[in-house]
Specification:
Helix content is 69%, strand content 0%. The protein contains 9 helices and no strands. α5 runs parallel beside α7. It is globular. 56% of the residues are buried.
């Protein structure tokens, strides 16, 4: 649970740094996103981290479920909805587990990325969905080879980067930022953000 907590905080921290760039990419993107996707995923992740406030020695399965439920309830825009479904799929893959090996967490990551496709089944060519499929495939090979979760995340990120077009789409960037944030969270190479734990902070996030 502690590792998963760091992954989620790392992802949130990375979106704080990159959400404005995601919004900027959206303006020049080749696919339509309602609203501002960068802001939407930041607010979605802001909702997802709320359960971490009172998380102490919690099972990875239980914590993943609470994070996913909060993300689904707090999802903003279509990009936020897809991201919340990734977290929901991750939670499904970790159900009933107190601890998880790198391979189990890697499989849950694949499950989460593929689960997001169910959110927009009629738009299979959406860049965020195409990128998620490619990254899931990269993760699959790393899991099959018995690599650590750090190497699994790196493999997924590399697979995505190699497939991105010269003109990156905001959906592709969202997946890249999310997995990079998870990786930084696991290895501890991120600046811990001020999490929106208080009611006052939550209200500011909504504004």
């Amino acid at each position: 649970g502690t590792d998963y907590k760091r992954m989620i905080i790392g992802a949130y921290s990375e979106f704080i740094l990159e959400y404005e760039q995601i919004n900027q990419v959206k303006k020049n993107g080749r696919f339509f996103y309602c609203g501002m996707p960068g802001t939407d995923v930041l607010r979605t992740m802001g909702a997802a981290v709320l359960p971490l406030q009172d998380s102490v020695n919690e099972s990875i399965g239980g914590l993943a479920r609470r994070v996913a439920d909060a993300a689904v309830l707090g999802a903003r825009g279509n990009a936020g909805v897809i991201l919340s479904q990734i977290l929901r799929g991750l939670a499904k893959g970790l159900t009933g587990k107190y601890n998880a090996s790198s391979q189990e967490l890697g499989k849950a990551l694949q499950h989460g990325i593929l689960y997001a496709q169910k959110a927009v089944p009629e738009q299979k060519d959406r860049p965020i969905i195409v990128a998620s499929k490619i990254m899931a495939k990269g993760a699959y090979h790393a899991v099959r080879d018995g690599l650590s979760i750090i190497e699994i995340l790196k493999a997924a990120i590399k697979a995505g980067e190699e497939s991105f077009s010269e003109k990156i789409d905001s959906g592709e960037m969202i997946m890249q930022v999310f997995l990079n944030g998870c990786l930084k969270g696991i290895i501890g190479e991120f600046v811990s953000p001020m999490l929106p734990f208080s009611r006052r902070a939550t209200q500011r996030e909504k504004l």
